[in-house]
């Protein structure tokens, strides 16, 4: 097996809105108050105040990296007025990670926007660029920056908003009960995707000018495969759902691959996840092999851009199943590396059981959280992943 370098990143990831709590200036907070039946983030898991404890648990387990985000809605709650206190807060988070020996991987946009902002406004790219330029002032010593999280999924949300459909993005992305099938997602609008690619490229140039970090973005990689005779349909579907964004990463310093499951494509398009007892809490099929499929495709589609696995995990209350799933995912990842694919790290989703975009039931975390007391309880999977990281072997 390929010998992993000492610089290989082993860690976990979070998203600000899902863990911080009381993100009252964001569009998602507003949405939670309006949509009937949607659970609310509220205090979330109070990571905003408890980040040092959470990072310490990660480091003490033997992991060396932590991906977390800066929340734009906190930094710029009203147009053009930036909070120096919030910037200082995120700088303290960066310093805490560095002091604990954790390499920070910073995400600047993870689905949420300030309430006042719209990507459909003519000045959207300029507004985003101004935020990125200010965020860059606190990123000294940061080696990895993701401009946006899953722009293909975000383009889907924007597409649905543009079409003014009755269903919200959260309804399309709703978790289902264990064993049920996940609803099939529609295709994002390629024109919106192209706009996000432009915004990413502009942000990349700002960050390269003002920081010494490696810059990229993360893409939701669905590990799509073709049924017999459906190769052309696969190319068509994969372009609008994934490849447009992977190609947008050509010229980046890395591509963040995010993979959870796999689906087939037939002559009608993407085949829904089958019903079955193995389905995860989000309705995905149990497919640990998806990560290897996704990494191999991203490597080719980006023109051999170095890969950082920025999310991979499973929604399950059964932690032994989490370890089994992650073992299979890492086997596929290591096999891809043995075949010469340049992979720089593996960041598990997620560090903490958290708010899953309108729902609290799905359990992705390596650490359980009591939502009444906020007590943290590391799961066996955290110690297991730490041991894998220390050995560099399964």
Summarize the structure.
By secondary structure, this protein is α/β, with parallel strands linked by helices. It contains 13 helices and 13 strands. The chain has helices at residues 16-19, 27-34, 47-60, 72-75, 84-99, 124-135, 151-163, 169-172, 190-210, 231-247, 290-301, 319-338, 380-391, and strands spanning 9-13, 65-69, 103-107, 144-149, 214-220, 225-226, 255-259, 264-266, 269-270, 307-312, 343-349, 367-369, 376-378.
Describe this structure in words.
- This protein is α/β, with parallel strands linked by helices.
- It has a single domain (9-391), classed as Glycosidases (TIM Barrel).
- The chain contains 13 helices and 13 strands.
- The strands form three sheets. It has an eight-stranded parallel β-barrel, surrounded by eight helices. Strands 6-8-9 form a three-stranded mixed β-sheet, covered by helices on one side.
- Strand 10, helix 12 (319-338) and strand 11 (343-349) form a beta-alpha-beta unit.
- Helix 6 packs parallel to helix 9 (190-210), helix 7 (151-163) crosses helix 9 (190-210) and helix 11 runs parallel beside helix 12 (319-338).
List strands and helices in order, with pairings:
Blueprint (H helix, E strand, L loop, with lengths): L8 E5 L2 H4 L7 H8 L12 H14 L4 E5 L2 H4 L8 H16 L3 E5 L16 H12 L8 E6 L1 H13 L5 H4 L17 H21 L3 E7 L4 E2 L4 H17 L7 E5 L4 E3 L2 E2 L19 H12 L5 E6 L6 H20 L4 E7 L17 E3 L6 E3 L1 H12 L3
Parallel strand pairs: 1-2, 1-11, 2-3, 3-4, 4-5, 5-7, 6-8, 7-10, 10-11
Antiparallel strand pairs: 8-9, 12-13
Helix pairs in contact: 6-9, 7-9, 11-12, 12-13
